[in-house]
């Protein structure tokens, strides 16, 4: 292996390490009674948001199933493109694990939270 090839190999490995260090995943975090949060961020803008969001929803559902409870989404939040300069795809999920007969269990009616709220005071 030539010196130039060694330098290229070292550079490639360094770039991969830096990129992989930027990804994060909280796992399931308890934030209150029967209420949990999961957040995940990609290391680059290339993978996109759809599969990552599906992964954390599946993880939350599995967590509830392990407790013999039903999965109920409370809210979701995603980063917005463009995915450059550290603004990489990020998705957060807040959910509850509730008993099948709990009144909190219902069809999710998710609405987008406004980015800006204008309040007029008199």
Describe what you observe in this structure.
- The protein has 122 residues and is of the alpha+beta class.
- The chain is 30% helix and 25% strand.
- Strands 1, 2, 3, 4 and 5 form a 5-stranded antiparallel sheet that branches.
- A hairpin with a 2-residue loop joins strand 2 (29-32) and strand 3 (35-41).
- The longest helix is centred in the N-terminal third of the chain and has 20 residues, at 3-22.
- The termini are far apart.
SSE series: HEEEHEE
Tally of contiguous helical segments: 2
Shape by Cα distribution? flat
Percent in helix: 25-40%
Report how far the terminal alpha carbons are from each other. Answer: 75 Å
Number of strands: 5
Rg to the nearest angstrom? Answer: 20 Å
Note poorly predicted spans: none
**Class by SSE composition:** alpha+beta
Average pLDDT rating: 82
Give the amount of beta strand, in percent.
25-35%
> Can you summarize the main beta sheet?
5 strands, antiparallel
Task: Work out the oligomeric state of the chains in this entry.
Answer: single chain
